[in-house]
Amino acid sequence: MTEPALALTDVDFSWPGRGGFSLSCPSFEMARGESVLLLGASGSGKSTLLSLVCGIVAADRGRVDVDGTDIGSLSAGARDRFRAERIGVIFQQFNLLPYARVADNILLPLRFAPERRRRAADASHEAARLCAALGLPEGVLTLPSGRLSVGQQQRVAVARALIGSPPLIVADEPTSALDANTQDTFLSLLFDQAGRAGSSLLMVSHDERLGHRFDRVIRLEDIVTTERTAA
Amino acid sequence: MILRLAIGSLWARALTVGMTVLAISLSVALFLGVEKVRAGARASFADTISGTDLIVGARSGSVQLLLYSVFRIGNATNNVTWESYQDIAARPEVDWIVPISLGDSHRQFRVMGTTQGFFEHYKYRGGRPLQIPDGHGLEDLYDAVIGADVAATLGYAVGDPIVVAHGLASFTEHADQPFRVAGIIAKTGTPVDRTVIISMEAIEAIHVDWQSGARVPGQTTPVDVIRQMDLTPTAITAALVGVKSRLQIFGLQRWINEYPEEPLLAILPGVALGELWQIVGVAETALIGVSAMVVVTALLGMMAMIFSSLNERRREMAIWRAMGARPATILGLLVLEAALMAALGAALGIALLYLGLAVAQPWVDAAFGIWLPIQPPTAREAWVLVGVIGAAALASLLPALRAYRLSLADGMMVRI
Q1: Chains A and B: how many Cβ contacts under 8 Å?
Q2: ipTM of the modeled complex
Q3: How far apart are CA A94 and CA A104, in angstroms?
Q4: Chain B residue closest in CA terms to A144
Q5: For position A1, what pLDDT does the model report?
């Protein structure tokens, strides 16, 4: 039996001193290579959940296993390294360092992840391949990221998340800044490349219409309970 | 790659970073400039007199003797008799000796009686002789050679008449015996610039009709009679002495200090200058303090600039964190940026300094007689630059620590 790409078990977490927002997730699992859409409105705890999955914060109780490793047992520094090695992250927008060239942006996570760099083999060649596969114009690698359109920037973010084929891709509403047409192309490209890399895809969105592309669609409130005690 | 990104990040904020770098560079240039001027002033001060091995005068303090014999500040308490002078001149160690007689003035400038030997032996700034581009030295009894400042202030040219006043700030003039400007000494940056030089004999001549500091009533000896008189001085104020071998300086100094006929004092000009500089040097410490505060101010400005940039950079920090950068990496990035800004500022400051030196050097020399040498940075200056960069890195730690805490709290999710 292969280990799940992501598994949360009996997780309890509350932000220290921040309006007493707490979240618990009794059980959630994602198989390797699976794509899951988490539906949730803002304030439903998705940011907290993603922070837990990415190891930015550690659960107070329970386990968060990513690719077979309980990241709660790692030190903060080791979690940062683990995130660089195993997880590709795509934000809603403003994904890139605007002053850095596209190539530097794509290669940045490899800077903190030696194993992933080895997996990527010839990293700059791989970056060029991903850019081409994602339909980015030739020569884009040497451009400053700030000059790209929003749609192009999101694709570069995908290339950055996918380089070195991390087992888990976490995407936080990556399409919300795109118009309907571009959304569709963007998602097709994302799915193609994630499938090719064998990465699981965990995407958070409030847009139910995207659901048909995913293996599973889950409402956030079905797997987590949140509580906000007045501070 | 981190370095390239740090440079890219700075470049993207070229305006604010540029202003900060400019502030740092100006402060660095000012600090090093003050250092240069200080060193130049000190060197010029120490170079006021060179080539003279001993200064001899009546017994008083060594600083006092230096002040009145070289800087023409204050007055001698006593004179040295002509006999003592001749005894010293007769010593086998003595290579040359030049007498100095002070006490009279012309307008605000001191008059100094001496011999032609003064022009041969008085050296300044590492052995430079006095030069008289205009006119000639002391030839006639009533020749006066004036310093550059005297000529410039009073508008004198060669051939102009000069009347010497008795004493300092006095209204009694030696009007019966006018002098003629025979030569004007090129600017030296020493007290010579502010001196009217006449011969020892002339000092005697103008005092022929004087006794105990007052004119003998009704007595006026005609000039042609005076010219025939024996004008050997009876006393001098001080003497500059050169010895044949430097090894003999201390022996001669002891001999003069123990001279039995009269209480005398012989000083080494360099030593006395050092003592004097210790008194004057308090001002230089204040200058350094002020310019150091300017550097501190520039670094504080940089700190404020980093602080204010933190908020708009939270998104950027979140990207770094999401890519797997540890909070410590973000702290390091900010410190690196600060060090880069300081290094750029320091380099620019050095460039400004040398540009300023190149422009100001001739002017400062002409106006103040301070020679600012243009040399590669000294080890001390290099340490100052390293210190500025280090201090910048240190100052940036405060905002960087705040960024560290922010990035810990924000993680990858910034709610702006």
Answers
A1: 82
A2: 0.88
A3: 15
A4: B8
A5: 46
